[in-house]
């Protein structure tokens, strides 16, 4: 009786036979496989082999099912995370940024040496609504001090280049200039009509945030037909809004509403640019380049020749 009882207990205490279903030098990969099996209610054990590799074991009865689950998991996640499609910048994308820097430096020299004449180009809300629309553009060329100038030179040339890399230098800078001017003009309407306050502003930052808006919308539109998740598809717009919040708000002299107006104008023009994108090369690109130059000359003449 006593001997039979001991034999029975010994048999019941035997460990189940384990088989290996996954092996890797990457502990994290094996742990991930263990989570997959755990989600399928398959008992598993993680261990190390004699050669230092990590291995995943299951009971022999669950072996076939465990291997099938891991095979299916790998097949479903073979292309995840999706790789971001990289493409080369369009030729000459840097040229617009170079011209942007030269023009702003020239106007800052004019401010330094020209006495108070430069103040005629400040965006005065009441004057803009009285018909002097060009002040919305001339103000983009002027800056309060060297720090203001350097900040807009750095960020403007960077985001201008990124937009130009997408749609070409001519269309990009013509769009950025329009976004900045429209942003200042919209800002003038807001203060004069909405808030009934006088308002004066200057600086290229309205155009810089216009470039951010254009780039954000171009990227969101480009990702629409990709297998990316919805979060990844709207990430460029989120990034643009974060930039607007970080650098467009704050500081006693920051023209917050102009920055928002420039960004929104850029978003609108970015949508138009995406629709017209197949037609923005060749002669159209040249027309946009000349158009940006002509607009700056026209604004300069209207502002300072009177």
Compute the gyration radius: what is it? 31 Å
For the largest sheet, list the strands in their spatial order. 1-3-2
Structural class: mainly alpha
CATH homologous group name of the largest domain: Rhomboid-like
| CATH secondary-structure class of the largest domain | Mainly Alpha
Reported by name, the CATH topology of the largest domain is Rhomboid-like fold
Specify the overall morphology: elongated
Key features?
two-stranded antiparallel sheet, Rhomboid-like fold, 3-stranded antiparallel β-sheet, mainly alpha, Alpha-Beta Plaits, 306 residues, disordered N terminus, 2 domains, 64% helix
General description of the model:
The protein is mostly helical and 306 residues long. The chain has 2 domains: 64 residues, Alpha-Beta Plaits; 212 residues, Rhomboid-like (Rhomboid-like fold), CATH 1.20.1540. It has 12 helices and 5 strands. The strands form 2 sheets. A 3-stranded antiparallel beta sheet has the order 1-3-2, with helices on one face. Helix 7 runs parallel beside helix 9 and helix 9 packs parallel to helix 11. The chain is elongated.
